[in-house]
Amino acid sequence: MPAPIRLRELIRTIRTARTQAEEREMIQKECAAIRSSFREEDNTYRCRNVAKLLYMHMLGYPAHFGQLECLKLIASQKFTDKRIGYLGAMLLLDERQDVHLLMTNCIKNDLNHSTQYVQGLALCTLGCMGSSEMCRDLAGEVEKLLKTSNSYLRKKAALCAVHVIRKVPELMEMFLPATKNLLSEKNHGVLHTSVVLLTEMCERSPDMLLHFRKLVPQLVRILKNLIMSGYSPEHDVSGISDPFLQVRILRLLRILGRSDDDSSEAMNDILAQVATNTETSKNVGNAILYETVLTIMDIKSESGLRVLAINILGRFLLNNDKNIRYVALTSLLKTVQTDHNAVQRHRSTIVDCLKDLDVSIKRRAMELSFALVNGNNIRGMMKELLYFLDSCDPEFKADCASGVFLAAEKYAPSKRWHIDTIMRVLTTAGSYVRDDSVPNLIQLITNSVEMHAYTVQRLYKALLDDISQQPLVQVSSWCIGEYGDLLVSGQCEEEEPIQDEVLDVLEGLLVSNLSTPVTRGYSLTAIMKLSTRFSSDANSVVSIYGSSIDVELQQRAVEYNALFKKYDHMRFYSEHCCFVQILPALQVQSTHPPCFTGSIYTSSLFYRFNLHVLYYLVSLLFQANDLLDLLGGNDVVPVIQTTLPTKPASAGGELLDLLGDLSLSTYSKNGLKIEFTFERANPNPNIAVITIHATNTTEADMTEFVFQAAVPKTFQLQLLSPSSNIVPALNQGSVTQVIRVLNPQKQQLRMRVKLTYTHKGSPIQDLAEVNNFPPQSWQ
User: Fold this and answer.
1) Which residue stretches of 610-746 are H helix?
2) pLDDT for 251-270, tens place per residue?
3) Residue 716: φ, ψ to 5°
4) Quick check: 439 and 594 in contact, CB under 8 A?
5) pLDDT at 213 over 50
6) Is 634 strand, coil or helix?
7) Which part of the chain is the GAE domain (predicted)?
8) Predicted model pTM
9) pLDDT tens-digit map of 332-358
10) Can you give the pLDDT at residue 609?
């Protein structure tokens, strides 16, 4: 059989291929020849064939059929064969394949070989692809080589020990005695790998971290020698002595000094020396300075040293290299919360980064700029950020607008400035404002009572100029619906529009192609609101949308029509009886968007709905769908739970004529027990007052407890707020809630209840029917 071609010839031949198909044909032909050689057990050219196979593997072609040939080369006595065999094993084998276990004995023999280069090959292979089983079997040999005086073997054994510790952490203590003298070695390769080994051990074991903290003075000494040493051609990189070793030592010092006062104190001086003496004209020096800054910020360093670190990052911002500027911005963003004043000194440089062409730098600069905003610089920073919002790419506008809203809410110097800033955002980037911003803005405007006239005027003018920004249109529609009468009452600073103009604008939004269904819903509600204060026929406008293809808009129109047909005579009755009076100030106790929880007040004629109930009437009705089929389905009205403040029975004399100790057990299941107690309201004897008492006999609290009820249409029912939404465990308390039932025809009371709660992490829902009310409760 002729001798196979050499590796160089194969590479030259493959490079002449003009197409991928031609290259594949060459590879397949050569692979066939290599397979034939392997089958004939050709020992002469096995090394050459495996080398060519590895090249094909690097090109992405399958080479798994050469795995066993690699093992044969490893078992050879020739160094050239072993070198190619070990290289092939590292490329073609891993711990997922059982074949690699066949190497264990060969590696063990080579670790004890008389030639250091063979030992080095075995250490490299074990440190590259050794499995946990191999590491357990060969850890002893690695530990012996770690103690040898041969620096060539010690540095390779240290890296191999790192791999062993990662695979089998419980073997860490085996290498502890060998680490005692590692830092005394003068060879930089051994020092480097020793620091890597110590770092791995400290990161994986708190005990090792405590043990090695005593090495801080020795590490400081090594780092000082590197800084003060003269020119050394062997280790010099761009005028800096062994920057790789310096970076490794700084990382280890960072781990050792974290949360430890003594260790931090011992390294403060050397960190200051590195920070002030390192050359910054080359990237090598910047890498060392960056690691120094990270170490200073992570340990318990002195305040002056932290200011020095932040000043270094500030100098990085002026560097022409974009990577260095990005690293500086990211690091400043991490430290701004702990060293806010020091970072503030570089505010102008950070703001200038907003003009950078690189999108990554712009994003980091934007995030850092918002982190720097406080009550003292709010006006200047908002001016810069709003200018950035005008000119930035669309991908930044949503985040920037949200950041402006949050900063303005937190640090606004005045209500007028706050509203002007919001208006600027809505008019320049309204289409990019997130959905949750609209209810937040509505809440702000509602609570700024003295600014209602100014705000509605600004929003009305903005609406005339541009209706393409949907969040702007939604907020404007809401404000006009609430405070549209201020536009025509003479309270605005400029010329007021007439009523028809305001209504025409809102009706134009309903038919505009730019309006979304949500925007049309806002406009529809605004028209209904203004119908109580303007002389207009809102019913004709609303009725058109009773057949809209949008389900929510259709149902809203139907609900409004039904409401005004039934109570149209009350539309202009009085401010206190109006269905849709102006929304009161919203009380929001969290950072979430405001929830427009409403109120229903009992009257002898009707229930008065505030606007926030009307806005969400459709969705609230759907929440009660489970109750709609009660008692035959069509004779039941679902009840919406409200937040009307409740008073005890003894307060104000509202609940009189108690019915003694009359009570009714209505539900007992899964440890939850519901009891009804009854009272009679005064002066209307047709209203029964029922108080529910929910108790819990289990060992865990029942959270998110919600009680809902439904009654036939001949009754009218009102649910007041519960005392809590948590039913305490072991009967340690109860949740109470008051129900008012109007029964003008003195019929027997029937009710279906729906219970929803979470118990031990599992949501539970149940229905119950109550038909055994005592006669005293309804007669």
Assistant:
1) 611-615, 617-623
2) 999 999 988 889 999 999 99
3) -125, 135
4) yes
5) yes
6) coil
7) 659-774
8) 0.64
9) 998 888 888 899 999 999 999 999 999
10) 35
What distance, in Å, lies between the first and last C-alpha atoms of the chain?
A: 113
Whether 325 contacts 316, CB under 8 Å: yes
Distance CA 456, CA 448 (A): 12
The one-character DSSP state at 530 is H
Contact 256, 216 (CB under 8 A): yes
Among candidate residues 115, 113, 194, 199, the one with its CA nearest the CA of residue 159 = 194
Average pLDDT of the chain?
82
Give the separation between CA 524 and CA 480, rounded to whole angstroms.
Answer: 11
Give the mean pLDDT of 567-581: 51
Residue 410 has a CB neighbour count (10 Å cut-off) of 11
Do the beta carbons of residue 434 and residue 421 sit within 8 Å? no
Nearest CA to 480 among 501, 495, 494?
Answer: 501
Burial bucket for residue 451 (CB in 10 Å: 0-12, 13-18, 19+): middle
Cα separation, 80 vs 84, whole angstroms: 6
Q: Which residues of 122-150 are buried (b: 16+ CB within 10 A; e: fewer)?
A: bbbbbbbbbbeebbebbbebbbebbeeee
Distance CA 312, CA 292 (A): 10
Specify whether the CB–CB gap between 296 and 308 falls below 8 A: yes
Pairwise CA distance, residues 279 & 286, whole Å: 8
**The pLDDT of residue 238 is above 50:** yes
* The residue type at 460: Y
For residue 569, what pLDDT band results from cuts at 50, 70 and 90?
Answer: low
Q: How far is 251 from 133, CA to CA, in rounded Å? A: 31
Q: How many residues does the chain have?
A: 779
Residue 536: per-residue pLDDT: 61
- Six token digits for residue 376: 């003292």
